[in-house]
């Protein structure tokens, strides 16, 4: 493939002084443009500044006319800086310049003729010739402008988990790190890739997600790009009065909104379907580039996982180029037939890219698909197998980075603790929030440490206060958490409080005998999770010395699941309690 780069024709240089574009004669503008144009071979993740709109088979970012929006790429260009090289470069570029329009890009046939040269020859800035070596096929990252106009994201955030933290909200609304919710992870992955039109599908205890999305991602935050993050909550309609039956059913029931027919925007070409209960950092633009390069109907993002863990996941069977021949949702004991020589299986991450027309064909036929009346309720159980049955081109994109499903309490705890490590952390916390805007719907003071405080490998949220003599090791202290003097926090998660109180307010509350959310004086917390608005009194010990695996003490304000103590939301643990 060739990338044709046009630099600003009115840019100043040693040979061409700065002149307003309108005052440069037309013929001279063309000479300057030819003198600064070069042909280069694409060799990896790149971004070029070009005038382009639409798509064609040779270059997805170029249209037949070559006119339209500005796209971005990161490509190193060889440009001319000497007048005596102008003729050489001008002769080279004129051979590929589209006839009849000096501002148009080469036609596909001309670009194709260049791609067949073995090997192509390029004149560099010093007039020397060099040969470019053949390079292996490289997936091209789709530029942000293209992603914003041709791609939509659908984030599934409505499932119910058997987890003490979901007694009062859905799992995607539980905090990760100190200031984010799990729902922020897929949203920020999309924003980083340039996807600015997203739908969040909710059902189970959705109020907290609805409020967070409305305050953190308001429409005005997207400016002139006309983006949005819309929450589509389960609702009764004339055709359907029951809850969503599964992930595919949730998408099917919202197809009218997902089509964008009433928004006055260009319909999407592809939809990225993502889970709201996973922690990962992925280049979604690269996945979409792979999807379009392979001309796939559906692309399944996957990664290698051990056989034991793969039993409860969706296992992908694919060849060396990623073409999928089989998909097995939660195979259980059958996973032994699906692993490779290293006892590893290719497991679905719950992230999919699907063409618009393929999604509509699979889901638009009411409660059943066109494949023998099969119910279309779940993506893994029904949608992917149905696509394979009708001969759709299904590929898998193997992710080589970090991914952690956090639907269970143990996985959620491990993902958070991993963020605190300074040496072994698989993903940095700032990488998760690299695209998050400063507008989070709240303004809090910074964390405060009073006196001598020992902090090691910990994350402190805004508004947190650590009193004199307290210790925090490998822990996350959430927003607005107060840790009393002399308390020790180790390998624990304190999820914080939505309400910040000043020192004068706390002193007044103490004088009235009111409780203050947080941890009291001289308490010890180890390997535990403290939910929002919990109060732990003075001299408490919360560390499960007895090694209890499971226990339900909801009436006393805590539960134990998989050996981890969870102090429930709004719980009050009296002074001197030992758990």
Detailed description of the structure:
By secondary structure, this protein is an alpha/beta fold. The N and C termini lie far apart (65 Å). The chain has 15 helices and 37 strands. Helix 1 packs across helix 2 (86-94). The longest helix has 12 residues, at 409-420.
Secondary-structure class: alpha/beta
The dominant shape is: globular
How many E strands?
37
Proportion in β-strands: 15-25%
Summarize the topology.
Blueprint: E1 2-5, H1 26-35, E2 38-41, E3 50-51, E4 70-71, H2 86-94, H3 108-115, E5 121-123, E6 129-131, H4 144-150, E7 151-156, E8 175-176, E9 180-181, H5 184-193, E10 197-202, H6 207-216, E11 228-233, H7 247-252, H8 255-258, E12 270-275, E13 278-280, H9 284-293, E14 298-306, H10 307-310, E15 314-318, E16 324-329, E17 344-355, H11 356-363, H12 379-389, E18 394-398, E19 403-405, H13 409-420, H14 429-432, E20 448-449, E21 454-456, E22 459-460, E23 465-466, E24 471-473, E25 476-477, E26 482-483, E27 488-490, E28 493-494, H15 503-512, E29 518-519, E30 524-526, E31 528-530, E32 535-536, E33 541-542, E34 551-553, E35 558-561, E36 564-567, E37 572-573
Parallel strand pairs: 7-10, 7-12, 10-11, 14-18, 20-23, 21-24, 22-25, 23-26, 24-27, 25-28, 26-29, 27-30, 28-31, 29-32, 30-33, 31-36, 32-37
Antiparallel strand pairs: 1-2, 3-4, 5-6, 8-9, 12-17, 13-19, 14-17, 15-16, 15-17, 34-35, 35-36
Helix pairs in contact: 1-2
């Amino acid at each position: 493939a060739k990338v044709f780069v046009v630099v600003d024709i009115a840019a100043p240089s040693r040979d061409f002084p700065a002149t307003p574009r309108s005052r440069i004669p037309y013929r001279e503008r063309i000479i300057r443009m030819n003198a600064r144009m070069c042909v280069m071979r694409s060799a990896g993740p790149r971004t070029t500044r070009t005038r382009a709109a639409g798509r064609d088979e040779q270059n997805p970012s170029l249209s037949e006319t070559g006119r339209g929006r500005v796209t971005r790429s990161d490509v190193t260009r060889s440009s001319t800086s000497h007048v005596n090289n102008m003729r050489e470069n001008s002769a080279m570029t004129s051979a590929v310049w589209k006839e009849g329009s000096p501002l148009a890009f080469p036609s596909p046939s001309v670009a194709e003729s260049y791609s067949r040269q073995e090997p192509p020859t390029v004149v560099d800035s010093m007039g020397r010739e060099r040969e470019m070596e053949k390079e292996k096929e490289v997936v091209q990252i789709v530029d942000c402008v293209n992603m914003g106009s041709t791609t939509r994201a659908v984030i599934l955030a409505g499932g119910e988990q058997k987890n003490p933290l979901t007694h009062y909200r859905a799992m995607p609304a539980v905090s990760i790190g100190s200031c984010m919710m799990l729902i922020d992870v897929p949203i920020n992955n999309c924003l980083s890739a340039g996807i600015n039109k997203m739908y969040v599908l909710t059902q189970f205890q959705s109020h907290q997600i609805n409020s967070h999305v409305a305050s953190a991602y308001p429409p005005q935050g997207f400016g002139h790009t006309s983006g949005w993050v819309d929450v589509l909550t389960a609702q009764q309609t004339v055709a359907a009065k029951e809850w969503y039956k599964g992930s595919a059913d949730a998408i099917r029931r919202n197809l009218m909104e997902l089509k964008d027919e009433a928004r006055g925007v260009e319909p999407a070409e592809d939809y990225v379907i993502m889970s709201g209960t996973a922690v990962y950092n992925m280049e979604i633009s690269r996945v979409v580039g792979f999807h379009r390069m392979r001309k796939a109907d559906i692309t399944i993002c996957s990664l290698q996982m051990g056989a034991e863990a793969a039993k409860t996941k969706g296992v992908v069977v694919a060849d060396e180029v990623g073409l999928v021949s089989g998909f097995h949702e939660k195979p259980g004991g059958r996973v032994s037939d699906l692993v490779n020589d290293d006892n590893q299986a290719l497991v679905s991450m719950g992230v999919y890219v699907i063409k618009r027309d393929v999604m509509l064909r699979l889901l638009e036929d009411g409660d059943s698909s066109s494949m023998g009346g099969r119910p279309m309720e779940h993506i893994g159980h029904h949608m992917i197998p149905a696509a394979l049955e009708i001969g759709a081109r299904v590929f898998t994109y193997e992710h080589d980075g970090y991914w952690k499903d956090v639907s269970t309490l143990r996985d959620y705890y491990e993902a958070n603790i991993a963020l605190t490590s300074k040496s072994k952390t698989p993903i940095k916390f700032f990488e998760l929030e690299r695209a998050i805007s400063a507008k989070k719907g709240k303004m809090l003071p910074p964390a405060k440490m009073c006196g001598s405080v020992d902090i090691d490998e910990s994350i402190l949220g805004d508004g947190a206060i650590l009193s004199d003599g307290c210790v925090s090791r490998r822990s996350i202290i959430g927003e607005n958490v107060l840790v009393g003097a002399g308390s020790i926090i180790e390998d624990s998660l304190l999820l914080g409080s939505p309400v910040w109180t000043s020192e004068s307010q706390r002193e007044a509350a103490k004088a009235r005998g009111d409780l203050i959310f947080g941890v009291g004086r001289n308490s010890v917390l180890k390997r535990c999770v403290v939910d929002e608005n919990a109060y732990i009194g003075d001299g408490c010990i919360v560390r499960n010395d007895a090694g209890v695996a499971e226990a339900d003490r909801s009436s006393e304000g805590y539960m134990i699941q998989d050996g981890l103590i969870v102090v429930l939301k709004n719980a009050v643990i009296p002074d001197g309690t030992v758990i």
